[in-house]
Amino acid sequence: MRVSSVSLHGISNAHPSPSTANPSGLSYLPSHESSAWDMYLQQIDRVAPFLGDLSLWVETLRRPKRALVVDVPIHMDDGRIAHFEGFRVQHNTSRGPGKGGVRFHQDVTLSEVMALSAWMSVKNAALNLPFGGAKGGVRVDPRLLSDGELERVTRRYTSEIGIIIGPHNDIPAPDVNTNARVMAWMMDTYSVNQGSTSTGVVTGKPIAIGGSLGRREATGRGVFVVATEAAKKLGLAIANARIAIQGFGNVGSVAAELFAQADAHIVAVQDHKGTVYNPAGINAKALIAHVERHGGVFGFKDAQSIDKDAFWDVPCDILVPAALETQITSLNAQRIQARLIVEGANGPTTPQADDILAERNILVVPDVIANAGGVTVSYFEWVQDFSSFFWNEEEINARLTQTMQAAFASIWQVAKDKQVSLRTAAFIVGCTRILQARALRGLYP
């Protein structure tokens, strides 16, 4: 186990195995554009002129507070001992304990986790949640593991990062390729090591052990809520709007169902298995059932299969990138036909693409607001765990909707007042709150 000192200008990552190079087929980042961490640094550069006296502290935003890199050795089912590399980064804790998900993915790197943790800092502050930003990951393809191997990876990783997580220190949650079952293993491992049950150490747990109603659907629901609010600003009715969704996991599928319930038409969906298109509309429930049976959208009989790159040419009103980061780049931003982009994924749009979309008058609702539904209900779960008093799902959804609407309205007003993009406005709000806390707390020792 080692704690890494992370340089602003250079990051040395362990090398992924050539055999685990991104098999998803969803990589659109050209070689001349930014990595996730570089994207974040550019976003900070863009917000810095708006921070006033707080700019004295701006380097705080460019440097993670703590980065932990761990070895995760496990016994494989065939008797081998395999080693995986794990990460947990706490970007900033000035406003409260670190908060952010854990992803299991074959392409996870330290720089990626750094960026994700930084976006969590901004997201939590922009929503005014009492958390800092953190993120974690293990470089592993969970599809290649048995259930037993997956549990052993989870428990060993949890034990290794146990020195920095905790209900008052850093609270993990589900992210890419992790779910409530993984959170249950994490909670149990941490609790056993501590000698007492600690339900508040993670969120996104099963209901039976302190999870919150509405948590699984929260991120997708939040995407739908802010999409509705943004559409109102554009005079765009959700009913009969054409929706294209990249990524059809927990976020994309829930958002699709909610759009369909509001009488929108899901015209295109892309995931790691393929891309399907039907200009007359795709039945969201039927597609979800197909994905549950076949593991992806490819082969769905009520839509035509199209080339993955053709996804960006689909005529639509609202585009929801809900897969991975750096999907919308200078190579495809000119082709997008949507009026509104609502970022369900973290960091799906590069700064270069942002500029192109702005020139084309395409409104982008940034990730730090659009996909904040998950962490908002994670906050509700954390509060419920401490009080041992649980709310019903109707109350949770109402609180989520109210929180997301208020945050969007605030950021819209900042964007209007300062004549900046919604992304820069969200960063102005979030970074101001982070640096105010940093300045008030001062430096010790």
Indicate the topology.
Layout: E1 2-4, H1 36-47, H2 59-62, E2 66-75, E3 81-92, E4 98-105, H3 110-126, E5 133-139, H4 147-161, E6 170-174, H5 180-194, H6 215-234, E7 242-246, H7 250-261, E8 265-271, E9 274-277, H8 284-294, E10 304-305, E11 318-321, E12 340-342, H9 351-359, E13 363-365, H10 367-370, H11 373-387, H12 393-418, H13 422-441
Parallel strand pairs: 4-5, 4-6, 7-8, 7-11, 11-12, 12-13
Antiparallel strand pairs: 1-2, 2-3, 3-5, 8-9, 9-10
Helix pairs in contact: 1-3, 1-13, 3-13, 4-5, 6-7, 6-11, 6-12, 11-12, 12-13
Q: Mind explaining what this structure looks like?
A:
This protein has 445 residues and is an alpha/beta fold. Among the domains are: 64-211, Rossmann fold, CATH 3.40.50; 216-370, Rossmann fold (3-Layer(aba) Sandwich), CATH 3.40.50.720. Helices cover 40% and strands 16% of the residues. It contains 13 helices and 13 strands. A seven-stranded mixed sheet has the order 10-9-8-7-11-12-13, with helices on both faces. Helix 1 runs parallel beside helix 3, helix 6 (215-234) crosses helix 7 and helix 6 runs parallel beside helix 12. It is globular. The model is unreliable at 1-24 (pLDDT under 50).
